[in-house]
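Can't attach files on this board, so I'm pasting raw text. These are the components:
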Amino acid sequence: MADSQARDRLLYAAVQHASDHGIADLSLREIAAALGTSHRMLIYHFGSREGLLVAVVREVERRERESLGAAPLSGADARRRWDRLADPSLRAQERLFFEIYSHALLGRPGTEGFLDEAVERWISPVKELMIGAGIDDEDAEALARLGLAVTRGLLLDLLATGDTAGTTRAFDLFTQLLDQPSRHDPSHG
Amino acid sequence: MADSQARDRLLYAAVQHASDHGIADLSLREIAAALGTSHRMLIYHFGSREGLLVAVVREVERRERESLGAAPLSGADARRRWDRLADPSLRAQERLFFEIYSHALLGRPGTEGFLDEAVERWISPVKELMIGAGIDDEDAEALARLGLAVTRGLLLDLLATGDTAGTTRAFDLFTQLLDQPSRHDPSHG
DNA sequence: AACACAGCGTACCGTGTGGTACAGTGAACC
DNA sequence: GGTTCACTGTACCACACGGTACGCTGTGTT
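---
Top answer:
Structure tokens for the assembled complex are below.
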């Protein structure tokens, strides 16, 4: 259950397999076989099946956090980020993200805290930057939230349709809308 | 397996229960007990566990389709639709939608065809209306797609945070961006 | 009265589940 | 050479699973 090299290797492989085939309705034995080990080993390293799922969720969270880095503000920066997200090599990982998200929405064990940060973590750095740039606090939050929603919504679209060109056009339209001048109403409460 | 009143009652109750507690990792027996029947009856009416899940997915699809009605174009109309979606009584149903969506992304049996229509069905009527209003074809598609993404993205946000006010502010910001004049660049390929 | 038939419950089957017991490995350290 | 310790395979457990066999209702038909 503690850290170890063997455990890390198994976890890495488990996340890979979960990305490709989902995670929730795979049995310990199925996962173990796919990873080239025995279900006994997964119990040894992760304590229980649920322990394994929790570890996988945490690892997915960690990677998501790691991929955040600096926040996008300009249209060009945002577009570069979208292009990275739309890369086919990330599809499996993104499917896994939405699978875990939906499990968390249903309150499945091991996903506690996932939702708390699923929105906040992405919004707050963007918001801070915008406030620093002189944008009103409430406007900044709404804008950050909208940007996140556009990204995730288009990602859902992309995963379902595979239409990179179409979703990217929609994303570009969004950045165009944002880049219009004088979008902030000064007569605001 | 065929239609019947008893089957309809069970299906209705099953969708309700699936909305409240998810569907994928409930056993036949759990569902049956919650519905006040026996797992034998679910097999009788739906043929198998998978048959039940398929029926539930179809019913959720049907309701989604039914709720489409006329398409939103003006900001006020869109806002009215968002308010309806944001109503707490729909949360459970929306959670179920995203659960099924993620299952479909992983290719689970019974979800075939769900994704094909998950985007197209919502986009095309909006697109038609916009084309009728003289908007360029590709622009219309991008706009419809963006609107759907905003809706679903903010719905994900709302389900995770429960922050109706915040997500609604973000939605309003989006409609403001849309309602700005001269957003269409005539010098377009 | 005899039958048909949709609806339903009980008891059961074989199978796969998550988890445990226990007996090893092989390398590291003393 | 002995001991420790992380790691792993085999065999097993009790249990819940999806599904089936079979028999019992009630209602409507002939």
